[in-house]
Amino acid sequence: MAVVIPLSAVAYQSLRVPLSGYAVRLDLQQRATGLYASLWLDDQPVLAGVLCQDRTWLVRKTPSALPGDLAFADTQGTQNPDYSGLGSRFVLVYAEGSHVG
């Protein structure tokens, strides 16, 4: 089952969300070269500065206790996300059981 993570259309944001029983902190930062994500699981770093791309898993094969993965999806095409469309055009989805690592 997929869960949509609520986001705001701002260039930098930090949010905490419960996912699969874990306290997850997600930082998103827009830079000139794209949108980047950093992820903490129960205050332990999992990812730092990963480029966000359309329909591409963020965690991938990174060793993590999180039993799922996160990906952005463009609801109007196949562009990579940018902050101006977060929460509307670009949605962030968490899918449990999708982690390939």
Explain the overall architecture.
- With 101 residues, this protein is mainly β.
- Helix content is 0%, strand content 51%.
- It has no helices and seven strands.
- The strands form two sheets. It has a four-stranded antiparallel sheet with strand order 2-3-4-5, with no helix packed on it.
- It starts with a strand and ends in a 5-residue tail after the last strand.
Produce a short descriptive summary.
This protein is mainly beta and 101 residues long.
Short descriptors:
single chain, 101 residues, mainly beta, four-stranded antiparallel sheet, three-stranded antiparallel sheet, 7 strands, 0% helix
User: How do the helices and strands follow one another from N- to C-terminus?
Assistant: EEEEEEE
Strand order of the largest sheet: 2-3-4-5
Q: Which structural class do the helices and strands define?
A: mainly beta
Distance between the termini: 19 Å
Task: Note the beta-strand portion.
Answer: over 45%
Helix tally equals 0
Main sheet attributes: strand count, strand direction, barrel closure: 4 strands, antiparallel
pLDDT averaged residue by residue: 92
DSSP helix fraction = under 10%
Name the poorly predicted regions. none
Computed over alpha carbons, the radius of gyration is 12 Å
- The total strand number stands at 7
Assign an overall shape.
Answer: globular
What topology emerges from the helices and strands here?
Layout: E1 2-5, E2 12-19, E3 22-31, E4 34-41, E5 44-51, E6 68-74, E7 90-96
